Amino acid sequence: MIKHYPYKSLGKANYGWLKSNHHFSFANYYNPTRMGFGKLRVVNDDWVEAGMGFPSHPHRNMEIISFIRSGAITHQDSTGNKSITKAGEVQVMSAGKGIVHSEYNRTNKPLTFYQIWLESNKDNVAPRWESKKFPSEYGSALTLLVSGYPEDKSKALFINQETRIYGGKLTKGSVIEHKISHQAYILASDGMFKVEDSLKTVTMNKGDGLEVTRSNAILLRAATDCEVIIIDTIA
């Protein structure tokens, strides 16, 4: 079963320097029917003005993933990590027993990124942070970006949750079958593509979200060059 959430239906926030589209309830946006999706609690589609960002603030027992779509983000935290994560790269932070961090756009161009939060399956672990660059060329396959499964540690960023996050840029005309282990939330980062299961076909446009439940596979058809993210997580 698939359920479509068009970009225009998402929660909106505009602080001038920050423009955010909330797939689920967050901050001043509250929708009792959109409190999360299984262990997935937050998906924010953020735009950050050049020179601006999020000052130091705490997190605890949450897995936080940032998928940089354009520009670059400068991260600094209380464990001593400081790094710049650029477009085409992904960073993960396991907040664990507690961490304080800041994130800024130190460039002269806007930053766009997805901020994804998942509940941790292990409380009060030592906080950690890492980032990784993944293939950014257009092709006909998605890459495993993030995983909470030990067997994937050599190829993906690790988080403390039974989740796999796939992403990549698909060339127009690409058709791929993607297996779903649990349930999935799909993001249209760019372009247009179709998602099909055994019952329904949905056209996804830039910014849209889509839930996949009770399906063990979907078919993706790239109607244009596009960028896709799939978050496969437990209920």
- Can you say what the CATH homologous superfamily is? Jelly Rolls
Q: Give the % helix.
A: under 10%
Structural class of the helix and strand makeup?
Answer: mainly beta
- CATH T-level fold name: Jelly Rolls
Average pLDDT score: 97
CATH top level assignment = Mainly Beta
In angstroms, what separates the terminal alpha carbons? 14 Å
Counting copies of identical and different chains, the oligomeric state is single chain
Overall, the morphology is globular
What is the N-to-C succession of helices and strands?
A: EEEEEEEEEEEEEEEEEEEEEEE
CATH architecture: Sandwich
- List unreliable stretches of 5+ residues: none
The share of residues in extended strands comes to: over 45%
Radius of gyration: 17 Å
- Tell how many strands the DSSP assignment holds: 23
Please summarize the sheet with the most strands: 8 strands, mixed
Gist of the model:
The protein has a single domain, classed as Jelly Rolls, CATH 2.60.120.
Folded structure, characterized:
The chain has strands at residues 2-5, 11-14, 18-22, 40-48, 53-59, 62-70, 72-77, 82-86, 89-94, 99-104, 111-119, 128-133, 138-139, 143-147, 157-158, 163-170, 175-179, 183-190, 192-196, 201-205, 209-212, 217-222, 226-233. It is an all-beta fold and 235 residues long. The chain has a single domain, classed as Jelly Rolls (Sandwich). β7 (72-77) and β8 (82-86) form a beta hairpin.
Structure keywords:
single chain; 235 residues; mainly beta; Jelly Rolls; eight-stranded mixed β-sheet; seven-stranded antiparallel β-sheet; 0% helix; globular
What topology emerges from the helices and strands here?
Blueprint: E1 2-5, E2 11-14, E3 18-22, E4 40-48, E5 53-59, E6 62-70, E7 72-77, E8 82-86, E9 89-94, E10 99-104, E11 111-119, E12 128-133, E13 138-139, E14 143-147, E15 157-158, E16 163-170, E17 175-179, E18 183-190, E19 192-196, E20 201-205, E21 209-212, E22 217-222, E23 226-233
Parallel strand pairs: 13-16, 14-15
Antiparallel strand pairs: 1-21, 2-3, 3-4, 4-11, 5-10, 6-9, 6-11, 7-8, 7-10, 9-12, 14-16, 16-23, 17-22, 18-21, 18-23, 19-20, 19-22
